[in-house]
């Protein structure tokens, strides 16, 4: 009677089945948890092997570079020692001569590397000079001389001039040259600073010089004068004017 299934309690059977299911679930989870532990240890072993191999390669490379640098240092030391022994007995004059030759050789090597041509340099200098001359003629270049003038030490003097409209002057002590719009060139003596300037010579143009003569002494300006320049000794004077003539 006790072993008959009819008299057994069905709730006990359900509990046993549920216990079996839970035990199997726990066993499966335990098995699943063990597997990642094995994989992590394998990965760590692989990483450690790779890191060890990398360290070995770095050490080998550093040893190679160190050996190369040491070899170069030894060669440089040997070369310096040979040079010192070679030039140990030379005098100061020989040393200067040797350094000068070495300097010239270095300059020659630099010119060869840069393809230096003296002709190109001359052309550049000539071109820049021509540009400067053209700019000066057109009035694009100015010279500032105001700061150089000693105005405090200047002693102004006045003098009557018969010319009309002074248009230019040139000073070469002790002479002063002036020009005017009425085509007159005058030479003045300014030796004595206490007295007035004295006119020593003058020449005047006019309509009679409109036609150019074959004889140079018979020519002159026929219009207003614009500029004048004199040599340092006062022997030569050049004038230019509206008539496009230079005398």
UniProtKB/TrEMBL annotation:
Entry keywords, A to Z: Nucleus, Repeat, WD repeat
Keyword Nucleus in record: yes
One GO CC annotation: small-subunit processome
GO molecular function annotations of the record: U3 snoRNA binding
Cell location: Nucleus
TM helices/strands, residue ranges: none
Lineage top rank: taxon: Eukaryota
Region Disordered: start-end pairs: 1-94
Biased composition (Acidic residues): 44-68, 76-87
SUPFAM superfamilies hit by this protein: WD40 repeat-like (SSF50978)
Keyword Repeat assigned: yes
WD repeats: 218-247
Main location as per UniProt: nucleus
InterPro entries: Rrp9-like (IPR039241), WD40/YVTN_repeat-like_dom_sf (IPR015943), WD40_repeat_dom_sf (IPR036322), WD40_rpt (IPR001680)
Protein name as annotated: Unnamed protein product
